[in-house]
Amino acid sequence: MVTPRRFLALFLLLGLGLAQGLVLPFEGPQGFRLAQAFAQGLKAPPPTLLALLLPDLPWRNSYDLTGGLYTRAGARLAQAATGAEWVLLGKQEEGSLRLFLAREDGVKEGLFRTPDLAWLWLQGEGLAQKFSSLPYPSLSEEELRERAHGVNPDPLHQSALDLKEGRGSGLLEGILPEKLLLLWQGKLPPAYQAFALLSQGKREEALKLAETLLKGDVLEKTAAELVFRTLEDPRWKEAARTLAQAFPELPLAWEEVSFAAFAEGKGEEARDALLKALRLRPDYWLYWTNLGWAYYLAGDLPRAILASEQAVKLRPNATAYYNLGLFKAIYGDFLGAKAAYDRALRLDEGEDFLEALKDLEERTEPLALFFRAYVAERAGLPAKGLYQAFLETYPRHPLAQAARRALNREEGGLVLEVKKLALIPGDLEARPFHAGEAVFPEVKLTGSPYLPRHELQTLLYKEGTLVAQEKKPLGFPPLTAALEEVASAVTLPEPGRYVLEVRYGEAQALIPLEVGPESLARRLYALGLEVRDLSGNLLLTPKETLGPDGDRLLLEKTLEALKEAAPLATSARLTTPLPQGPYAGKSIQELLKNPTLEMVRSFFQKVVEAPELLADNDVVNALVNWLLESR
Question: Among 80, 53, 49, 47, which residue's Cα sits nearest to residue 192?
Fold first, then answer.
């Protein structure tokens, strides 16, 4: 057994050797044991430490955005993020071991049949001692995984846990790179600072820092490009091309170059960039989807179709199917185009059909015009004019009869049904309403064969005069026939008689409203405040609160709760008369014993103005605090 003092001395002696490089946990069923073996042989810190302390990259989705940690790009970014002289990581692949060795100037990759062959490779790289053997770790995979998750930590791993909690670096000084330790101590490197500025809305400061990051390492160059892109600064295109040249292992860099090329209408450059990205991530559906479009822009329709077909094999997605439909429509393949468009419409969540229609607008082929009408109809957009234009242009086309059938198709009309009127979206029916309250109409819309697209409007009239109007554009997927939605709220300004109109296209519903005076109970309810006694029990149910007797019940039950709590008010602070304020001369105990409706009503009126008075408190303590603060 090693005493704590000998344990510390051991790592201090090895500190200089340990700090030169890092071995990260390997990916695979025996990943921790393999990584531990290599770390021991290379005199590197335990990989289980890095499982606790490897930082996420500063941007959203971290390593996943760049293709994953266990890649050439991931290894190089990990080296830059940690500040290590070198970083080694690996993954097990069908009886082989793939290693990535990243240094500041690049990354090397090797695939080996056995770990011992990988060890020989590291000897050739000057990292492992010549003629040495790969060590055998003493701990099992399960024990190492537990340690990597902070279970039963030894002193070194406890230091890592302490560092993450902000309690200093402890035994890790000299063992891990200083850059990594400083990052966990809150001293962010420039790339992380840039995204911190972004999160704080400091646009100009983030852009200024990004300018300097362009001259930095691969992590900083990547951060600079992403900042420019996020803030839509035109320099992102140049930054993307610079990043790809400096960091060719990064598929994201080539993806960004392709987007720059698309924006500039350079199909061939986009194609070449995506082919490079696919060499790094060959099974990424998005790259195949975009490659199909790049081939289309470059005038290579056969390859555009092949790339799009590969994209939907990897992951069925609306964009690739819309592209496939367009390409086959250009070829005159009606059945192929229809099958692709039908699948795209089913997959579209309401975000892609407008782009697909725009792409069709730019074509003059007969099928392009027909499918422009076909897609528009199923997306709920006006299509009759498009079908008519197709018939006028191509009256003898084989699809003319299909276009006529579409024009003669009986439409079941548009139906709008108001399901309820609520104070809070998705909540209970709240009629009758009171002055000052917002009315949220919840409606069901039905269209046949598909729901058309309009704005959902809420209008409020008093004596025939429009006093309030709100509009809400609706988003829904193609092929939608019915939809339940909450319309925008209108606020009732004062007591009286009103007519509420909910309108969607030519469909409408008119609802008379008799509006009463303001209600304290309902105002509290709308604010999300719950009135509870000392035991935590609700004084009113939601139905009672919204009912015609809500205010009366609120005041009466609050009086009861205060009287029940009065015997508990025995401290000197609560039995001493209040020196000033509206209740001067009376103690809190007296006020609880004999509470008045006026006092309780005044309290709730104050809560409406300052909801934090009640918040998570019970009504007794909230009222007592209010009385004490009023003195």
Answer: 80
